[in-house]
Amino acid sequence: MNCPWRAPIQPQPSSQQRLGELPPEVWLRVFAYATYIPGAYAHDDGQSLTAFARDKYGISVHRRHREATDLMLTASRVCKTWAPLVTEFLFQYIMVKSGDHAIEIAKVLGRYEQDSLNRNSAGRWTIRLELALEGVHRWEDQHTAALAHIFACCPNVTVFSTAFSTADASLFQGRRFLRAMRDVGVRSNLRRLELKGDAALLETILPPLAHSLEALWLLPSRRTAPGGVVDPMHFPRVHTFVLSEGFGWGGPPPTWTMPSLNTLCTEDDNLLPVAQRKVQGFFETHGAQLQHLTACRSALNHVTTCTSLVEWTISCGLLFQVTRLGPAECWLPSTLRRLTLADDMSTTYMLRLDHIALLVEWLGTGLLPVLESIRFLLPLGRHIRRQRCREDWEQAVELLYERCRRRGVTLEASIGADEHTADIWSPLSMSHLLDPLDYHPLKHSFSAH
Hints:
two-stranded parallel ribbon; 14% strand; alpha/beta
């Protein structure tokens, strides 16, 4: 029966029509959030780069890249409104896995170039170009030509990387590959460089880019001679330098000058006298300007030169080694605001009760007068701490909490590689250190020794 006073039922818009009602600016922000890869694009943020560089094998970043790509490919098929919007997010991070893959990517970019309605609509979005070559690789001249074409189609690339190539550089870095890298060296718009390779690669790319780089991450090859002389270079704009492993470098070469450097991360553990002299030379020149330092044993003797240090990251196992440098008040930087301890689950460098006790001692004696936070880089696994019973850990951490409350110091933790590489932190809790159901029948008294 019809009711004349009732308004007729209007047809409901389809889901595609509802999607089309939102302006493109909203969808661009949604896609940007959904495809965000922490630390992959920045060249002016030293903290995000050092966090990103914790992922030395690209496990987390490549998973995030794969997930973002799959998501945008799916979104491009949802509706006509979305298809042109996702191009930006499909091409902002280009990963080349082989020479043949470079040819395929060059062809795709070439098709966009030939489209008069979408001229360069893909390549102009590219910020990061990465060579993640897989295994033993033969690089040919046609691969070099394809890489040059990719650069030509991507005029806004500011980040170039070979850091995540899976093999040692000697397995893919031949003469033809080095010729391709010479073309990289003329890209004056590059601001951040991540290089895995031997001395030949460094000498090919670094000198022409030294004047424009702002962030540098090096993973020297095993073939790089640690005793060799590194040519002098001046990097006027580099504010962040990460040296992973180094295979005997010991630290940044003293012949390199970086007047803008404020963030240094070096993982080399070389204690040979020749390496130590190089490290000493670098710290004598740059120590006073450093604000953020991540360093292994090779740099511990030179912390006293870092008179402006704000953040210091060290492995847990090195805490007692630094106490051997002398009275803590003589070498602990009084400017330090953040102390980060890294636990990599190894026997040498894992977090122990002794380390908690030492922190309690420092906080109780008035050291580190401007300290604001203590942070822990912790692994996902917690079973290794069962060597001491739960009550001991609870007592130690509660005492640390109390000292921190008195001093106004916060305690934070980052758990697992995904959080480490994204610089994600949360308030420290006992569940970060021990499984809630963990039980150990043995009882030990809490001691600092």
